Amino acid sequence: MQGLVHTLIPESPLFATFHDGQVHDPLGGGAYAFQNDIAEPVLFALLKDEEFCAAADTRVTPVEARNHNGLPTRPIIIHAGLQPNNSPHVGTLVVFCYAFSFARAIRDRMQVLGDAQEYTPPSVTVMITFIDTAPVKDRGVEVGGVQYQRSHRDVSDALSTYMSDYEEVIRLLSNWADIPFTVAFQSDLFSDPAMPSLLNYMISQRATLGPQLSPKYGTLALRSACPFPGCNLAEKHGRLNEYETDGSNQDGVITFHCSSHGPHSVNLSHSAEVARLEANAPTRNLLRSMVHLLDTTKHHIRVTGADYAGMYQETFLYRPLAAWSASTGLASGRTPHILYAPLIVDWSGAKLSKSLYVRDGGYAFLKRLGMDGFCSYARLRDRFDGDGAEGLRRIWDEVERWVADPKKLFRTFSLAYLQGVVLQDDKD
Fold first, then answer.
1. Can you tell me the distance from the alpha carbon of 180 to that of 124, in angstroms, rounded to the nearest whole number?
2. Cα–Cα distance measured from residue 194 to residue 290, given in angstroms and rounded to the nearest whole number
């Protein structure tokens, strides 16, 4: 069999693999702990958050703190994010499906419990955040070993290239889940009222946080695009940044450096200037989590890929958060709520990645096997004769099964498996 495959396509051989067609969902770890239910543990954690906050608020009496009918009282926002530098591939689509499916699951669970108690539960929405500060390919420069980038939000038409694909996907999922959604951009995060004080804290702790959040360079990876008209270059890793703070660690100033136009500054006491800031993924993740923990009016739950679990979060999020809370007394006893979507992997167990991170032609074999619809929503739509809803609906139905049987959320799924449940021609 393998010899035949090599003979048919000698210039780019494929390798035959065999399996028995059986699908196993073995228990262990999260699959064991949450095999029967994932909504109830999350709702319980949200409820405990409210109790933590009530205990810290001297204006709330013990009776008021318990007056919640066993359900959260604050609106719940389920978050997912993306870099808009490609049409969403199946890994991103799985994350989006998980976010909307889980939102519906907890909404329905709270509705049942609320009806039994004649209590109206809080609203549930999904927020999709566009990381529009992601670099635009081939629009950066390197000068003296220092990298500079231009972000999608600063390059004409870069942000709009794939926007219609995302809008179509989000609209369809919102309709199927009957869950409302909002969209946000990086300027929304950096416009949060808590952001200046958080940035001042990070600046005061940069000797520790720099190496912690950016091990390669040991610096805070904060950046801001050059304001000179038509330039928009930003020093990518914050290696040349200069910081000024007063004795109270308030009203800091960050001076950035452009390779063409020299220094330019952001004053942290000016909200419009702060909104221009950008950050690398670990720094952005930490700031976003701090903002969410400080928000005592809403609950925030993040859905992201499982490649961000484990050591990544322990190193870049939980340890810095613990140090911040111990130092400031803020968000004491609380941690972020994060759900991890199963990774979609190739034959070798490597996650399906954007072509941006894979050598040219790295996924050419998927096209020969009729599986290139997994590489982008645009190709998935073509696979179903222009009907993107058909292919997306099959992915949605599959993820719905995972949420209904939560042990499936704690494993990976191969492209070969998804080919059988999403791309098979006789799918009803």
1. 8
2. 9
CA distance 399 to 390: 15
Q: What predicted TM-score, i.e. pTM, was given to this entire model?
A: 0.93
- Amino acid identity of 120? T
- Distance, in Å, from the CA atom of 45 to the CA atom of 300, rounded to the nearest integer, reads 11
* Closest C-alpha to 106, from 124, 133, 89: 124
> What local confidence, expressed as pLDDT, does residue 365 receive?
77
Q: What is the pLDDT of residue 23?
A: 85
CB burial of residue 113 (10 Å; 0-12, 13-18, 19+): middle
Mean of pLDDT values over 356-369: 72
Using the predicted structure, report yes or no on whether residue 230 has a pLDDT greater than 60: yes
Are the beta carbons of 214 and 237 closer than 8 angstroms?
yes
- In one-letter notation, the amino acid at residue 86 is N
Task: Say yes or no to pLDDT of 62 above 60.
Answer: no
For the chain, the residue count is 428
Strand pairing partners for 273? none
Pairing of strands 181-185, 124-130: parallel
Amino acid at 134: A
pLDDT digits (tens, 9 = 90+) for 254-282: 999 999 999 999 999 999 999 999 999 99
Of 120, 130, 127, whose CA–CA distance to 99 is shortest? 127
Q: Which residues make beta-bridge pairs with 146? A: 143
Instruction: Select the more confidently predicted residue: 116 or 56.
Output: 116
